[in-house]
Design a protein that fits this description.
3 strands; 3-stranded antiparallel beta sheet; about 130 residues
């Protein structure tokens, strides 16, 4: 099992896990597409957003190996923002390749993809300060 060095282990100050420490002796936990309902807790939504930000910052648009990424956390994004990067895809393999579906991820988590220019609170297009 590949360990993604530099990837955050969890959401700071919470128990929301992003990675696992060691491989399961019975094999990798199966990835499934979990349904995200509108009434999910704000903390769960924050964890999803932070996990997507970590994936984007660590891997970008490149395919990545599942490795030690937590199956439970991946399953909240799997099938939508995170998709298989290979066919056939084995959802029970630590070596399975995944990738971010950038268009869907931008739609679901726009805050993760905002640029510095998008977040500027001021604009000095037409004002003259003389």
């Amino acid at each position: 099992m590949l360990k993604h060095r530099g990837f955050p282990g969890r959401l700071p100050s919470t128990d929301y896990q992003f990675t696992i420490r060691r491989a399961n002796k019975d094999g990798a936990t199966r990835l499934i597409a979990r349904e995200r309902y509108a009434d999910r807790k704000m903390a769960d939504r924050r964890a999803d957003s932070a996990f997507m930000a970590a994936l984007w910052n660590h891997f970008g648009e490149e395919p990545f190996e599942r490795g030690n990424l937590d199956a439970g956390r991946l399953s909240w994004l799997f099938g939508r923002e995170v998709v298989p990067a290979e066919q056939p895809f084995d959802p029970e393999s630590y070596e399975a390749l995944l990738k971010i579906d950038v268009a869907r991820a931008r739609a679901s988590f726009p805050e993760v993809f905002e640029t510095e220019e998008d977040t500027q609170p001021w604009q000095d297009d037409e004002e003259d300060w003389d």
